[in-house]
Task: inverse folding
């Protein structure tokens, strides 16, 4: 058999529920406030940028390390057998582009 509640118990329960409801409404008001929404969006965007920048840094670092390993020996000395052909090919490409550019300017 359920216990009989007194009017004082009922009033105390009503007061407690009103307080709980007020707290819940305050939390909702904070969550839907434009400043809160903007702050959350900024935090998410910042985290996404940080994550993307971190991935880009790791990828660039890996590429630089791989390229360096191809042109520098384990002892740290430059590998001229690989540097000279790449330098000559680069000079040929730059010279060819310069020649094409000069030809277009003339006529």
Result:
């Amino acid at each position: 058999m359920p216990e009989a509640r007194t009017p004082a118990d009922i009033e105390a329960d009503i007061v407690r529920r009103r307080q709980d409801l007020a707290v819940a409404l305050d939390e909702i008001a904070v969550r839907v406030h434009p400043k809160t929404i903007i702050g959350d969006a900024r935090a998410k965007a910042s985290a996404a940028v940080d994550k993307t920048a971190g991935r880009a840094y790791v990828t660039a670092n890996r590429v630089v390390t791989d390229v360096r390993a191809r042109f520098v020996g384990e002892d740290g000395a430059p590998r001229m057998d690989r540097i000279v052909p790449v330098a000559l090919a680069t000079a040929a490409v730059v010279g060819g582009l310069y020649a094409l550019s000069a030809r277009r300017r003339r006529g």
Remarks:
- The radius of gyration is 35 Å.
- The mean pLDDT is 93.
- The longest helix spans residues 34-71.
- DSSP finds three helices and no strands in the chain.
